[in-house]
Predict the structure.
Amino acid sequence: MTNETLTDAETRDLRALAGVMIPASITYGVPGADDPLIFDEILRNLERDTADTRTALRHLAELSGGAFADLAPDRRAEVSARFKQEGGAPLFSLNRVVLLCYYRDDRVMRSLGQEPRPPFPKGHVVEQGDWSLLDPVRQRAPMWRRA
Amino acid sequence: MLDKVDVLIIGSGASGAAVAWSLADTKMRILCLEQGDWVKPTDYPTNGRNWEARLFSDFAINPNRRARETDYPINDANSPVKVVNFNGVGGSTIMYTAHYPRLHPSDFRVKTLDGVAEDWPVDYQTLEPYFAENDRMMGVAGLAGDPAYPLHHPPMPPLPLGKSGQRFGKALNSLGWHWWPSDSAIATVEYDGRAPCINLGHCTPGCAQGAKASTDITYWPAAIRAGVELRTRARVREITTDETGMATGAIYYDAEGQEHFQPAEMVIVACNGVGTPRLLLNSVSGRFPNGIANSSGLVGKNLMFHPFALTYGYVDEPLDGNHGPPLNLWSQEFYETDRSRGFVRGYTLQLHRGTGSIVEAITSTAAGRLPWGEDHHKVYRSLLNRRLAMSTITEDLPEEHNRVTLDPVLKDSNGIPAPKIDYTIGENTRKMMEHGIARSKEILTAAGATGFGVEAPIMNGGWHLMGTARMGTDPERSVVNEWGRSHDVKNLFIVDGSIWVTSGGVNPTSTIQALALYIADNIKQRLANATLFD
Ligand SMILES: Cc1cc2nc3c(=O)[nH]c(=O)nc-3n(C[C@H](O)[C@H](O)[C@H](O)COP(=O)(O)OP(=O)(O)OC[C@H]3O[C@@H](n4cnc5c(N)ncnc54)[C@H](O)[C@@H]3O)c2cc1C
């Protein structure tokens, strides 16, 4: 939608923020959203959200008093907590891009027990279920009003 | 100048396709102008790994977000419910979820039964054969015997219950409340050359399997085989008239922005509850200074949406997630009026399956459930595939201040004024939503869910667009007569959701299409006895 790209400084802050949002986890064996492959995907998918992302990152830089990426861990945590409260719609758009790239990464999908593939053409199996559950409803008198 | 046609249909969606197919057997020269393109099955999101992500880009349901060249912008700032649609061959059926209930007999008689709004000039019984014909043409899955409806026989077996369906069924049984497998416009077996559903689970933004009955794969192939011409990338600016006040055709822009005049003996408008009033209001002339067919002043007024309330919770075991069509059951327990509830009319409860992994992450973030940092992974795993959700589809009563007008500034890429929506949720509807949310929580509790969330109204929930050119017998209180013809312009017809008098509390497409077939039949009968333009 737009040819705008982020500046290097914005890119660094976005990556640092993505790592705060979803850090890598040893427990679950997953990368963070700042993982190089995932982060590249995020940059490629800003599309309609580029302007909002830039607005959010400007706000983040203001709260950080400079580059968010250069803050010490404690200060990062403090700033990101405040940003989460105050970031509003632009932050929501940024966060959404992070999520929609993170939750389609092969490694992440596998850790969730999901096959990393598109739904088509294989599809999925859904059980028919127990249709006798409907028996009490079948026995009801008509409920619609005659008009 | 282009050759004159007998019938010019504007809009190729649910109603435009049905009317085109039905009229084809007259052997008249029929042309449909559609502003959008054909969508290829290979373009649908479920073909790729970014299938969920595309819900937020080129397959977004909100046209302002999607912003394809073929879309027109809508000023929705003054409405808590935003209009969603699709512009292309098949219209919004490309993007619908194919939940396919009919209106009930009582929905056509709201004034007589409940003393509100107006009765319709047609009734369920009159439409019954058209419902059946439409079910056959679209291909409907369902189960005969629902006590909430007059008996009818969907041509295919119902969608699978799945894990969530069984939970809901048990919960509703324990409360003694009605539920039933939905009529769904989704093929559950091979049907008329279409392959059966394989539970791709992402029906709304288009079905790559072709199991979902969008009209580009149901009515249109049959209509085209029968000789109807469908011209895409043809965006109509206005309907033209002559000095006698009859419609003469339409002016449209092609993909290159070239203007054309298409002459016609009669014009049928099928642009939906927002696109139709927009087109009528844009069709201004000395004779029709307030827009064509608008002597009543009602074009654009009485917009009805069915405000939706989404209520959900989480259970302690994985369900089907987004596998399978998202909607497969309904409850009509609270559909018919019971004044002790504090409102008149009623609502459907639409029971959902779960969501995909990205939509779960995004909606849970919006709801403030999904933290940043270390805990993110643990919390996310407690939510994924555990969501049990339902929505309340409220009957929205007609109110004139809820309306579509022309925006004084906003225009589409051809410079045509865009629609502006002014809409507030009425008191009766609000009470109904609250009632529905409370009942939904009872059902979810009985189904073992906790941690409730509510979105009311669903903001991007303006998918049902009705009432803005309503039908009736009184030309001062309606825009078209009881068989869809404009009171003012005797060769102009409207067949889409704008002609609805009241909204009922169910998804509208089955009834929109039955009405379009009914109007087509009326046109044919009056053509046969030469009274069509009397
Ligand atoms: C996300 C979503 C989910 C839905 N789910 C359901 C559901 O489960 N069940 C249900 O019953 N309904 C559902 N609906 C609603 C359903 O799609 C509509 O009720 C139905 O398609 C309306 O039919 P229509 O003929 O009135 O208009 P549409 O199908 O919207 O067709 C209108 C057509 O007119 C064209 N058009 C408009 N203006 C012009 C112009 N000036 N020139 C040329 N062409 C023009 C448009 O491009 C479009 O193709 C859903 C809709 C959406 C968007």
